[in-house]
Structures are given as C-alpha cells and as structure tokens.
Amino acid sequence: MQTISKRKLIKSSAALAIGTAIFAFAAPQAFAQSTKIIYQTFLDPNNSKDPRSAAQTKMIDAFQAKNPDIKIELLVDPTGGAAARAIKSGAQTPDVIRVVGFAVSEFAATGNLLELDDLVKKDGIPDGDWLLPLSGTKVAGKLYALPQDFRIPILFYRKSMLEKAGVKPPATWDEVCALGAKFGQSDTITFAVPLGATGGLGGAQSLGEFFLSSMLPGNGGKYFTPDGKIAFSKESFIKAAQTIKDFYTKCKVTPLRSAQMGFNELHDALRSGSAATAVFGVYRYKTVQQQGGGDDLAWAPSPGYAASDKQTVYSYNIAINKKTANKDAAWTFVKYMVSPEAQALAAEGGEVVSRKSAYTAPYFQTDAGKDQKQWADLVGQRGQTVEYTPILSTYHTILGEAFQRMILKDGSPADAYDELIERYNAALAKAQ
Amino acid sequence: MDADNANRFSWAPFLWFTPAILILFLVTLYPTIFVFWLSFQKTKYYDLVGFNGLANYVEVLSSPEFWDTTVISLSYVAGSLAGAIILGMASALVLNRAGITGSALRVFILFPWTLSMSVVGSIWLWLLNPSFGPIPYVIQKLGIDPGLMLGDPGMALPLLIIVTAWWSFPYVMVMATAAMQSIPKELYEAVEIDGGGAFVKFRYVTLTEILPTLGSTALTLSIMYLTLMTLIIVMTGGGPLGSTTTLSFEAFRGTVQAVNIGPTAVVSIVVLIINVALGALYTRLTGRVTG
C-alpha cells in the first residue's frame, strides 16, 4: 500500500486551499457577467400535461438564446400567493410576476409595481397591436402591467342535450330563461349559475367573473372607480340580481343545488354532463373537453341582455416588481414575453394571446388553433375591460353571500344590494 | 473527579442547547410574538401603519360575526369530537377481541386517517354532490328528499362534522385499542368472580382504565379541529352563507385577502388562547397518564 509523507500531505492541502480560494474569488466575477431574473409564474415547467408549460419553456429558452447575459430563474407559484405576499410586503424578488387582471389594482395600490408607460413609449410598443387597447389595462391612468392573453366568458354546452330539447344555444338571457320550458323536469342542470366560494382567489369569484363583471357595468360602463368605490348603479344591480333570481325561480333553468357551486363544481358539472349549459372561462374549454366533454362539448358566445352586449374580459399580465435590483434586465424580459414572436409560441399552449400580429403565425391555420382565433375575434368584437377594486376577494365574498341569501332565503334584489353596499363600504373604509 | 471540578459552572450544556433554542425561537416563538404585536397595529395590506392600541380587539370582539364564527367553531370541534370518540371507541371495542381478523380490519379502518385532507374533501364532495353523488342518490331512492347537501346552510356544518369524524376516528380507535390492551386481565377476572356482566366490565374496568388516554386523545383532536382548514376550503369555502366559517378559516381568509390583517391577527390570538388552554389541560392529563 502506498503511503503519503506528512510533508506531501501538507503541500497538497495547501495547494487545494489556495485553489479553492482562487476559485471562490474568481467564480462570482465570472457569474457577475450574467444577470439573474426571478420570474414568478403559475406554470410548472415540469408539468408535461400542460401545453402552456411547454410553451413557456420554449419562450424562456428563446429569450435566453437571444440574451445570453440574462438568466431566467422560475419561481413556480400555482396560487399566486408568493407573488401577492412579495408585492404586498415590498420584497425585492421576484423581479417579474404574472398577475391576473383583476388583481392589478390591488397590487398597484401597494405602490410596489413599476410604472411601464415611459418604457412602452420609449421602445415604441404599438398601442394598436393588442386585441384590446392597452389603455384598458391601466389603473388610475397608469400602466403597471402588459397583457399576455385575454380571457372571455363563453357559453359551454352539451350538443346532444340541446339537440334532444330541440333548442339552439341561447344568445340572450331571455333565451336562457326559455330553456326551462324546453328541458322540463330533469336531473340535469339546464343552466348552471355558480354562487359558491370554492376555487378561485376567494369568495364567489365565478359569479363575479362570468356574470356580474359584465352585467353590472353594462356596455362600456364602469365597475369600480380607481379608488375602489362601487361605480355601477343600483338599477343595474337589481336588474342583474332579478335576472339571476329568475333563472333559479321563475324560469326553472337553475336548480337550487347550483347555489353552492364554485369553479370546481362548475367544472365537474360540465365535464360530467350534469349541467347542459353554463357560462365559463374560455381557458377551461380544452381541459373540460379532454376530461369528459369530448366531441359532445361545444361553445358559443356568452348570452347577454342583448346578443351583441359587451363581455368583460381580463388578462394574465406580466409586471415588474418596483423593488427589483435589475430593472433593465426585467424590462428586456417583459418586452420579449409580450412580443409577437413570444406570443406566437404562447399560442401553442392554447392561450388567446394578446398581440394581434401574433395571429399571423402558421399555428392558427391548424385545427388546434382555430378555436383560439375565433375567441380572439370574439374578444375584439365583444370584449371590454373594466377597473376592479383593490379588495376584490372581499367584494366577491360579500357578493356571493348576498346572492346566496337572496336565492336560498328568498330575499329581494334590493335587500341584496343594500347588504352588498353596507358591508362592502365598511370593508373598503377599513382597507384605506 | 474532585469537588471543585464538580461544582465548577460550565457553559457547555447551554451551548449544546443553543441551536435547538434558536430554532424554537425562530419557528415558534418569533411568529407568535409577531402576531401578538401585529394585533395592536393598524395595517394596510402587510404594511404596518401605526400603533392602534386595543382598537383591533374592540372591533373584533364587538362584532356579531365574530361570535357567530366562534359558535360555529366550537360546534364543529364538539360535534367532530363526539363523532370521532363514539366511532373510534365502538370500533376499538369490537375489534379488540377479534384476533387476527381484528388486526386486519384495524389496518383497513386506518385508511381514512392516512389520506390527506384535500383528498378526503374531494372524495366527500363527490359522494355528497346533489347532482350525481351516490349518497343523495340513495337517499332519493329511499323516498326522502336529499336537499342541497353541502349547499344547504342548515346541513353544511353537520355534514362537515360527519366527514371530519369519519376522517379522524381511526386515531381514537388506535389510542383506545392500545390502552385497552394494556389493561390487566385480572381486573376482568375479578369482575367475573363478583358476578359482573359485560356492561359492568366495560363501565368499571375498560372505561376507567382508558379514560386518561381517551381524554388526552380528545384534547389532541380538539386542538387539531380548531386549527383545521383544508376540509373547509375544499368542501364549502366557508359557505353557504358563512355557515361553515370557523375561526381558523376566517384567520386564513383574512390573511390571504391581506387587506387589513390587524383584526385577523386578533382572531389568530383568540385561536391561540383556546389552544393554549387546551394544551395546558392536555399536559396535565398526559402527566396523569405517565405519572
């Protein structure tokens, strides 16, 4: 067996120590050449079942190939809770976040989102190349986030059930009401209206997102003022509440069991076929189709008071943390993520991407891209954006309970309005 | 070793404990102290705007919603506990003398306890779904109107209690079985010699011997029920009409919404006080068991 002398061992140790010290000194210098951007996203790159994740990976790889000096590190945050806590507490990271449209005002109110107006102007990003004008994304006249996609409510329906009842997909709320007589007594929910609180970011988000955010502001009207005050009228609330109450009572299209439904139950009802029709988010269509809906599932534009009524849409936006230490690199990344080139890649994941010019990509000529192109056209024709309250989940909690009381305890729309106004104003006062 | 060495003060034991104390401080004491301090602050989102005195306490304790939530919490804890104890005791008694079959069945019965609460919630959401759930279907076939199940403000809490008891009764069964198996057979033989029947054996031997274990088990479960949220989040989201909103769920919702977390901190402090009281009781009881 070979032995090492004490002197040799000391020499080797010294050489190793010096080598380590040199490496420790030199390595940060070498790495300092690249800037690291932490990007918060709800899409897990390891989720092979979600095509949006694969599209996100493609986009990031393409960005890094173009910008070798910027390294993107993902912070996977499925609920968005990590981003909310970071922005609300003024943390330095993540540098770039994805923020849902109706939470932008809540995040902006913290003062921790970077204003993008000057950057967009400086880089000449055209205002006309978005499905809806960028001005609709602004909060109190300031741009804090850029839309990556647009999400419009659509009518999901089961073809076989509508054919059996001998009806066409309803285009107005009156036509929805008339479905009751055609479907008659049945175990199937003719038209589901979710008032429950499960799923989503809190409260009756599905009721707000799919119905009231369009019904209450009306065509081109306001939902909330920039400081969070309710901007819709009592008349529009009573009209909307009465319409929904009628679905449950007079029209008999919505059974009482729909009152506890939230996102999850609505999703399950549509995929299992226990609901014949429902207004739901466009972003769930392909999942519901794959999970049981199959060829029997179809879609149509969402009903309204009139068939051409505006529909409130929202986006998943990309925004920059104002406290980031890497503003320039963060902006370079954001600018790429909303570029037509990156948006064409995002479309392959199934999103209704936000840039008009992305729709010239070959993907939209394929069968897979056809629905997305039609949804994009629908956004352009009937989409509108509204301003939200900074306490949206509190608003949705109060709204859901007021509607549940109206339906389950046979209250009046006027009582529901009074309950909403009293509790919401008190909550807003405490938040300010 | 001489007397001088033995009496000399040594820092070494304190040094060994330092990491443990430090970790305990960072993960338990610091957050608790912070929440307590937060409860006296005026807040906007996560920002502390200034000292607020007792205003948050006055606001929370004077609100009728808080007392409704407290009643719901206590009903939930008491109902779930009663269900778990009855089911757990019954299965422990039945399986205690069932030999190998009993052991096999015990493993099978332990199944709910091994499931994550979100899975339990999802399974029961399906079972109770008024549109296609098997339970409302069977009830309907029996000629009874199943109603809205979790959608009925009057039924949601009792159903949640049933699900919680179903999930947690195996824990009671295991603890009770362990306690029963340590009861000396001579005690039962003494009752038999005195002419005592099955009821007398249960009342004066089994129950008397396992009562301390049952008490500490009940307290452990109470503490768990009081802080449990996952089932509520998955099954009802606190609804309908707030009928399943417990104190812990309210604290969770207030923190997630993060609009004004000062009053939410007060709710957390109330939960903490109840849990500390139960914990103190638990310590006394377990002291009785081991001492």
Give the fraction of residues assigned to helices of chain A: 40-55%
The dominant shape of chain A is globular
Spatial separation of the terminal alpha carbons of chain A: 78 Å
Which shape of chain B, going by the Cα principal axes?
flat
Sketch the major β-sheet of chain B. 2 strands, antiparallel
CATH architecture of the largest domain in chain A: 3-Layer(aba) Sandwich
Structural class of chain B: mainly alpha
Major β-sheet of chain A, in short? 5 strands, mixed
Using the coordinates above, name the CATH class of the domain at 60-115 and 153-290 in chain B: Mainly Alpha
- Find the structural class of chain A using helix and strand composition: alpha/beta
Distance between the termini of chain B: 34 Å
Q: Tell me the β content of chain A.
A: 5-15%
Report the total helices of chain A. 16
Quaternary state of the chains: heterodimer
CATH superfamily of the largest domain in chain A: Periplasmic binding protein-like II
- The CATH topology of the largest domain in chain A: D-Maltodextrin-Binding Protein, domain 2
Unreliably modeled segments of chain B? none
Query: What is the H/E order of chain B?
Result: HHEEHHHHHHHHHHHH
Query: Greatest chain-chain interface?
Result: A-B, 43 and 34 residues
